[in-house]
Each structure stands twice: as structure tokens, then as C-alpha cells.
């Protein structure tokens, strides 16, 4: 006959359950026949765990445990009181947890506005799953566009949300894997170069930043990870274009919602976040006022609206803010600050002056600093110079004369791409140190320049001079009107933008270089005099 041995106290099993929350062994063991798996914690790991979860003497410990393991809000308040989940985060996490527990292999989509706590919600949910399934076991796979930095940031956030008192002795951390007991979370990269095969998601499969993950790679490599287990799959990210993996899944899930009425797409625009975080709403409203309601970032990041595959880059409201009322100037005003923006065209000595080939364009802007330390500079176009079919030996002295002798420019931003590299190098040898800023156009740098220039224009900080009937100004506004953009797939929300067809965009690209100039501090120096190279 087996003898029952009480290891801690008479009612230990009634208080804490049959097994220790920390080590998983039985509180009450039966010795004999070699069976002796007794809780070895001193006096019992349960008390430390329960107190870490907010339990107080006199409460039902089992009730506390059941509540935090089934309610994301209770879990958040108990384990991350400094980062409590907001109601929209609780609702989304609860829906994902319910799907996992039902085991129906649901597909879900989650889209929060920028900085609304999507990744915080995911980290706390993952921590909850590791605790909940620590003895039963289960695998979660989280796929990110890249392992560095995105995957490592997600791993670090998860570790920060795992309370040490709960996972002491159970936590194991590997390069891309976090385990608590028999439960684990594996972080994978969706990069084509990454070796991601061979993993299985028995509880949950997550595509985080799904707009930046190739749909073909997802279908071939990652989707099968949940096939044999019929695990819940969640697509998370930011809307971008109709061609992304996230957009594809959202369209499909909305079709299912229309058929059975069960919610599968969880979208949280900025207005919902502002209900709980007023400061967030004030910040977003300021961004909308600065950039305009139809700015691509505002539409995608805050209003959660997809961008069409192509369209006009400058909305009418933005172009209106680009039109100044100051007259064109051919000579500088003493005491004011000027800069030059040089877009270098292709060299074609056979082209006549009437030919409309790609030209070299020099735009002169006045750098105006409004009163107030927090106000950003405004750039007013003074005039433009345009050369078509002029070789660099002839062009160089003219540019030097204009930027140094006529306008005394503090900075010259030069297109240093291709043929422009030689001209930029020559200008750096002739002009004062720090005066010349080379800019090399690549797909990434041109995309970033476009976003920055659009933001600057939307804020009313780039102003063309009043209409003077000049050919150069008319061509500039034609290029603005005909400029189009195309959102590109992949990471970084890059765009391809410019003027296609017979019209060139040389005047527009020259103006856009003001976005690079904006990174320079050209505020007047007090009591230091005028130094062209400073």
C-alpha cells in the first residue's frame, strides 16, 4: 500500500493545485515502487509565482491563475503593470487567444495605426502563451522581413515582458528562440537568403510586417508550417498597396466576414488610439496639419488606407502650398543666406539649344529662418539656370561663378550620380570646405528624397517665386503636374517617382535636392561673421 506524504502543508494541493507552478512536480507524492517526484522548491515556488501575479493572502489562488491564463487584460495587469494593454489591444489579443484555444486554424489580420502598440500587444500575448503552455508544450513561429534588426527587436521585447519570478528555472534563450518549459517561440527571417525551413507552428504562426514579406516566399516556405497542426495564422502590419501579402490576406478575410459575419480583420485607426491616449491624437493631428490628409504616409500609417499602384505624386493641396508670392530675383539681397541645388543632366554636345533633352539645372534658394527656436527653415526659390547640351568643361566655370561670385551660396547640393560625380569632385576642389554636398541617386536614396521633399512641400516650406512667365518656371510646374509615383514591394515602403514619357524631370529633381539641404544647419551665426564655408 502506498503511503501518502504531505510535502509542504495540509492544504497545499487545495491552495495551489496538484503541481508546483514553478517546477511542475507534484505537491503530494506517493513513495514506494520507486515513485518520488516531489516539489523541491523552498518552501514552494507557487507562492512566489502567485505574488508576482498580484495574488494576496485570502484570495483564491486557483481563481487568480485561471483568470490570468484566459484573459489577456488580467495577464497584462499582473505581469506588465507599467505597460497595460489598452482595450483595442486586449480585444485583438483575446481574439487570437480564443482562436488558438479552439484550434480551428483561423486566419486573422491585425492592422494598427503607427505607434499604436501592435508589437507590444504581440509581445505580451507571446509571453502569456509561453506561460500558459509551459507544461503542455506548443510552438509559436514569428516571421519578420529581416532577422536584424526586426527579429532581434521582437525577441528582446518578448524577453522584457517575461516576468523573472514566473520563469525562473524554466527559461531558455537561444539565438532566435525563446522557450519556457515545453513551450517555445521561434523568430524567423523572411529574407530569401535565410534558411527558414524545418519549423512547425503548433499554436500560432505570425507574419509580422506582412506588407514587407514576399507572398510567393510566404506561400512556399512559411504557410506549410501551420498546415499539419492547423494552427492559427495571424498577418500583422501596415497597409501599403493592394499587391502586398497583407493586402491579399485582408481581401480574402473580408470575403469570409461577409459570408458568416465573424470578425477576422482587426483594424485600429488613429482616432481609436486617441480615445485612450490624448497626447497621441494631438501628435497625429499636428502631422496631418503639416503633411496634409492625402499625404501617402498619413493615408497608410494613420487612416489605414491602401495606396493605388500609381498616381499623381503631388496632390492639389500640396502644390498650392508650393506657390509663393515673392518676386523672382536675379541678384542676392545683402545679409541673406542662399544655397544652390544642382541636378546634372546627360552630356550631349550635338544638341542644339532648342532641343528638349535632359538638362543641367541650378536652382537658387534663399534659406529663411522664421523667428522662434523651434521653427524650421523655409526655402524660397530665387531663380533657376538651365543648360542643355553643355559639356562639363564649359559648365564648371559658369556654375562656380554663380554659386560663389554671384550668390555666395553657403551650401551647394550636387547630383553626384554618373557624370555628376566628376562635376561634384571639381566643385569640391574649388569651393570652400563643407560647401559642396554630393548626393548620389539610387533607388533607396531617391525614394527617401521624394518622401522628404513631399513632406517639406506639404508643410509650406518650399516656395516657388511668383509667376514671371519664364520658360524654366513653366517647365517646372509641368513636371510637378506630371510627376507620378509607384509604391514598390519589399521592406522600407519605397517608391519609384518621377516624370515618365517625353517630359523630363530635371527641374523637379533640382528642386527636390532641397530635402538634402534641409539636413544642414544654416542658422545665422551670432558674432562670427560671414563664412562661405561654415
Describe this structure in words.
The chain is an alpha/beta fold. The chain is 38% helix and 18% strand. An eight-stranded mixed sheet has the order 5-6-7-4-8-9-3-10. Strands 16-15-12-13-14-17 form a six-stranded mixed sheet. Strands 11-18-19 form a three-stranded antiparallel sheet.
Q: Approximately how much beta-strand content do the residues carry?
A: 15-25%
Q: Which word captures the global form?
A: elongated
State the total count of DSSP E strands. 19
Which architecture of the largest domain would the CATH scheme give at its second level?
2-Layer Sandwich
- Give the tally of structural domains: 3
Supply the number of helical segments: 20
The residue ranges in which pLDDT falls below 50 over 5 or more consecutive positions are 1-15, 28-38, 348-356, 527-532
Q: How much helicity do the residues have? A: 25-40%
Find the structural class using helix and strand composition.
Answer: alpha/beta
Report on the biggest sheet: 8 strands, mixed
CATH topology-level fold name of the largest domain:
Nucleotidyltransferase, domain 5
CATH class label of the largest domain: Alpha Beta
